[in-house]
Write a structure and sequence with these properties.
Elements (H helix, E strand, L loop, with lengths): L3 E9 L2 H4 L6 E3 L5 E3 L7 H13 L3 E8 L2 E9 L7
Antiparallel strand pairs: 1-5, 2-3, 4-5
Length: 84
């Protein structure tokens, strides 16, 4: 049976990661979030974050955006050699 470990990270979005004058991540009142205006700078920051975590074996299972912070919940399979 697979065993999982989880990690929660919070990433502050700087002006340079959001593009000039407009956020690339937009959320509505219900909490639905969208990556917006991908033709501008900023999407590279998000892609780099996801690729770096993925190379460490982490899979993004959920994310949320609120007040210029991106909360990410990650999981990866626990190494069987590490205790329970």
């Amino acid at each position: 049976m697979a065993h999982w470990e989880y990690q929660i990270t919070i990433h502050e979005l700087s002006e340079s990661s959001q593009g000039v004058g407009e956020s690339i991540i937009k959320c509505d009142q219900t909490g639905q979030c969208f990556v917006h205006d991908t033709s501008r700078v900023g999407i590279e920051w998000l892609e780099k974050l996801f690729n770096e975590r993925g190379q460490e074996g982490w899979e993004l299972i959920q994310s949320g955006y609120h007040h210029r912070e991106l909360l990410c919940i990650w999981k990866r399979q626990r190494d069987p050699g590490k205790g329970s």
